[in-house]
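WARN retry 2 of 3 for item q-0093 after timeout on previous attempt; input resubmitted unchanged.
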Amino acid sequence: MKGITYLVDDDDLFRESIERNLRAADYDVRSYSDGRKLIADLEDNPQPGVILLDWKMPGINGIEVLQQLRDKNIDLPVIFLTVLGDQIYEESALAGGAVDFIEKSRSFSIVQRRIDLILSGLRSHLDRAPTKSANVFKRGNLTLDDSVRRAFWKEADIGLTLTEYRMLQYMAEHAPKDVSYRALYDLVHGAGFAAGEGAHGYRANVRAFIKRIRQKFRAVDPEFDAISNYAGFGYRWIDGEGER
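OK item q-0093 returned
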């Protein structure tokens, strides 16, 4: 099996068609007609994979599903599948933390290519996971415990998702150098992936992640200002000295 794909769509015919294609391509498919069922399953038994999520659904729409997943620190990558092709919807999806936005009219080969890129990025990250029982990085008021992927600021747990943690770790370990939007984006999606319209797509995606990271730090320290933006290029961590 290539990996797990969680498929959520209230259109039975469309969902069954995509599910057949995914299974024929050797994916492990978990299929849902309602976003609430997906959330409940991932709360009970979270497993790495990619979520294919319909935008327009009764009861709870795709953006609301994505928000609830992030609120519960369920950080699986999300691809929206939708008939809504306007740029405003694409920007909303990326700003909400999705990794891609694909119109339903696109061929299955396009969907499969995006899934493969994301899954390969997840496997690459897991292959690099530390084997030590403890691996702590400190820089000023920041402490990163890589054994449990948790970040602490002035000893308070920030509550980052795995994706947010990886971005923060990359910035802190490369400080005081600037890190590019592209480098941060590739941490999440794997090198060579592109969401949205060229540079604008991946920059909007990274900015949304950084905004949430800052909000979480400021929830424990309203004066937090250790993430500096380098306009047009990326971000820099500017607090303290690093040590292992």
